[in-house]
Amino acid sequence: MLSEILTFIFFVLIGLEIREGLQRPKDAILPAISALGGMLLPALIFTLLVPGSRAWAVSMPTDVALAIGALSILGKRVNPAVRLFLLTLAVADDFFSLVVIGIFFSDDLHLASAIYTLGAATIGFVLPFRHRLIAILSPIATFVVIPVYIFINLLTQLDFSVSTEKISTSIVIARVVGKVLGITLFTCLATRFTKLTLPSALEIKEVVGIGFLAGMGLTVSIVIAEITLQTESELAQVRMGLFFAAIVSGLCGVLWLRRFPASL
Questions:
Q1: How many structural domains does the chain have?
Q2: Which domain holds residue 152?
Q3: Is residue 264 included in any domain, yes or no?
Q4: How far is CA 219 from CA 33, 107, 193, 206, 261, in A?
Q5: How far apart are CA 180 and CA 185, in angstroms?
Q6: What whole-number distance in Å separates Cα of residue 179 and Cα of residue 238?
Q7: Whole-prediction pTM value?
């Protein structure tokens, strides 16, 4: 029951953030395209490595709280444009993740799970006073909801004996490699072949760091796994893959962005 309540709160926040992001559609176009690349390539890589597995969608979502948390390690060394691009990208990622759930896994959603995922996001999307609610819910989600959810649904259930199983290793490869390649590639293509441009304060080398950080994905990925996977063996492998992918992606992102500190 606690897990469902936490999921409901988290998805309400996702809905709020998606609606708030639509208030600035022009600024969100490039990060949305980047996010799409950061979802398609991991899914493609995972599918090539584990054909026929229903876990392909687990490799796609990004956890903004984890990514921003890792970014905060750098303190004032972080270019503010990096944080803003990452936030916008993660919101677009959340939207695409809901679309994936709704299109590909609607048959797996029983009434309860539909209410606390897609239903909760819909509630968040239509609620008034979005800016105020985001200001209230965001720190609650970051410091309470997500840590408790991850503790209950991931950390207490880790099985290190499946660390080298195919699904585990494939998720790590798909997320760590696919996220950064997809985000960087789609950003380059969009800025090269359209009129879209990076913010003046942001460089493509920093987008690479954003791509690494986007490989950190636990909360939505676990929800997708619990909805779509049918065996405990697969779930155990997914948990280990997400755990290691988050650690490796976070370290890579922080170490990469340390090389390009903000001008003080």
A1: 1
A2: 2-258
A3: no
A4: 22, 21, 34, 25, 29
A5: 8
A6: 17
A7: 0.89
